[in-house]
Every structure is written in structure tokens, then in C-alpha cells.
Amino acid sequence: MTRPTLLLAAVMALAPVAAFAQVEVAAPWARATAPGAQVGAAYLTMIAPSGDRLVGAEAPVARTVELHTHLLEGGIARMRQVDAVEVPAGTPVEFAPGGLHVMLTGLARQLRQGETFPLTLVFEKAGRVTVQVRVAGAGARGPSGHHGH
Ligand SMILES: [Cu+2]
Asked: How many angstroms separate the alpha carbon of residue 77 from the centre of ligand 1?
């Protein structure tokens, strides 16, 4: 008789924690790289209903994985490493060409169109979230692989 009540109590106690730690990573993609290329970049969209903070990333396909943004300095777009990326509650944060990206340096192999590779994102609250990054064409502007808008 008491079991369903206890189970319900346990679920209710856990629910706020689970919701707190939730983060969704949508449409992770990367551009195909040329043979022998050492660098690549991955893009994605993060949604955290309660807010979170991306503090790092790891991928077996690259020796170094960093969070980068683009800044205009004297009219020239330059990449700069950032320590963390805030994901405000309920506001999607998009990584896209020309803006925020996951920088892959020291590629172990060529990224070929149509393949996928694992990328682990480390969040302050949600912890480690591993996604499969789809490799689009070399000139792709988005995850579906078509050029431009
Ligand atoms: Cu970069």
C-alpha cells in the first residue's frame, strides 16, 4: 500500500533537480575539411530551460578543442578563445560560422561529408553531454549542408 506513495514522493523530490540540470544540444554540425587540414570547427545550438554555462568541450578527433568567438578588431575578424559561454534560461545560443564555434585543432583525420564524430560538451550544471556531430559540405552555412540563406 505504501509503495506507490513512496515512489511518487521520490519522483517529486528528484524532478526539480532533473529539470535544473537539463540542457539540449540541437543540430550539431561541422564543415568537411581538406585532406591534411589541421583545423576544423563545429557548430550547434544550445537550449537550457533553467540556464547553464558551457565551460569546455572534448572530441577524440582533435588534439585540442577550444571554445572560440569572432571579434572585429580594426575591421578584421579575428578568432578569440573564450573560457565559457553563458546559456541564459530559455534563450537558445547558436554557434555558427562567423560567430561562436567549437575549434578543433590538430585533427587526427579528415572530416568527410556525411560522417559523424562524437563531441562532448561540459556544462556547469548539466555536466557532460555527448552529441554526434554531422559533417556537412566544405562550404555549408548550416547543418543541412545547403549554401547561404
Ligand atoms: Cu576558432
From this structure: 11
CATH superfamily of 23-136: PCu(A)C copper chaperone (2.60.40.1890)
What is the β-pairing status of strands 85-87 and 52-58? antiparallel
The CA 107 to ligand 1 mean position distance, Å, reads 13
pLDDT (tens place) for every residue of the chain, 149 residues total: 555 555 555 555 554 444 445 899 999 999 999 999 999 999 999 999 999 999 999 999 999 999 999 998 888 889 999 999 999 998 999 999 999 999 999 999 999 999 999 999 999 999 999 999 999 999 898 887 444 43
CA of 82 to the centre of ligand 1 (A): 10
Kindly give the distance from the C-alpha atom of residue 103 to the centroid of ligand 1, in angstroms, as a whole number: 5
Neighbours of ion ligand 1 (CB under 5 A): 68, 79, 103
Instruction: Indicate the pTM of the whole model.
Output: 0.81
**Residue 45: Cβ-neighbour burial (10 angstroms; 0-12, 13-18, 19+):** middle
CA pair distance 94, 43, nearest whole angstrom: 8
